[in-house]
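Posting this for the archive.
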Amino acid sequence: MFSWPPAITMSASPAMIALAASMTAFRPEPQTLLIVMPGTAAGSPALINA
């Protein structure tokens, strides 16, 4: 048997829908957070290659 209550459907205002869409549009994609950038141009290179 299922023990949780059924989902409640709530209608959102058009302004809230637009706000949620714009917040989602400006969120970075997960793939962009994993981009590897080259090391620093100034300073010394690492002593051991990782």
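The first helix runs from residue 14 to 25. The chain has one helix and no strands.
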